[in-house]
Amino acid sequence: MTLLRRLLSLLVVPLVAAATLATVGPAGNAHPRTSFPSRIALPDGYSPEGLTIGRGTTVYVGSVGNGAVWRGDLRTGHGSVFIAGAPGRQKAGLKLDPQGRLWTADFSAGTASVYDGATGGQLANYRFTDEPGSIVNDLVVTRHAVYFTDSARPVLYVVPLLPGGRLPAATAARVLPLTGPAATPDAFNNGIVALPDGDLLVDQMLTGRLVRVDARTGASQVVDLGGYSVDRADGLVLRGRTLYVIRNLSNVVAVVELNADGTAGVVRREITSPALRSPATGDLLGSALYVVNGRFDVEPGPTVDYDVVRLPA
């Protein structure tokens, strides 16, 4: 269906657990004691990719199938389509900013869109590239800019924010060329988060690496994980120094403790669960990690079921 799904379908091969990690599964804690549902069903055939949690218990899930955005409540498990999709549209990563705006990476369209997180009204659209085969995949919102990965090109796209977080003109978006390991051909740069000092972490799905990127220059270095591979890394979630690496076809979330400057990390555990079905990305709420199952190992179709699942963080 999409370039990403066709690529992932070629990657369904026997997976070998990293020899450097002796124990898999969540650390001692059970699921948080809560009435929140452990599984939230999405519409059949939805083809989800991005997920972000907004104010309270509101969750947004984007569709790489038709560009729709579903909005629901993690407490009740109920939701509905918030932004309508259309044939040919796609949405991958999405994030809420402090102003309550919903940013979306528009995948093969070469653009990003911004919506009112309360009404769904479109506020802006930024065109990054007309390059054939580009994949605007994931994003991170910082105080001064919004950064987007392109999984097919060695660049980041940057939308600088105006004072007070105001949106800039459509012509303000720029391209930040990457150098060093972040520019490795066919690495498939995917998830992205921001470090406290303003630099960025990006995962490479096909090399199994994390790279630290200078947000000003695009220079990069590999993050030392002690030999652990984050092969098939998709979404990233960062809280403090704890990084959650969601590895889609591996059905694993690697929990990494980063050092103070984000140049190295230790994999403390792997979260595994029968509920994981090619998870794409996720977000944190309290002591729970919510992930959306992209089901990339299944041929998309109108009867395929998809869901969001809750895991102990």
What does this structure look like?
There is one protein chain. The protein is mainly β. The chain has one domain (3-312): TolB, C-terminal domain (Neuraminidase, 6 Propeller). The protein has one helix spanning 3-9, and strands spanning 39-42, 48-53, 58-63, 69-73, 79-83, 94-96, 101-105, 111-116, 122-127, 136-141, 145-150, 155-160, 174-177, 189-194, 200-204, 209-213, 220-222, 233-239, 242-247, 252-258, 265-271, 279-285, 288-293, 306-312. The strands form six sheets. It has a four-stranded antiparallel β-sheet with strand order 1-24-23-22, with no helix packed on it. A four-stranded antiparallel β-sheet has the order 2-3-4-5, with no helix packed on it. A hairpin with a 5-residue loop joins strand 3 and strand 4. The longest helix has 7 residues, at 3-9. Mean pLDDT is 91; it is low at 8-32.
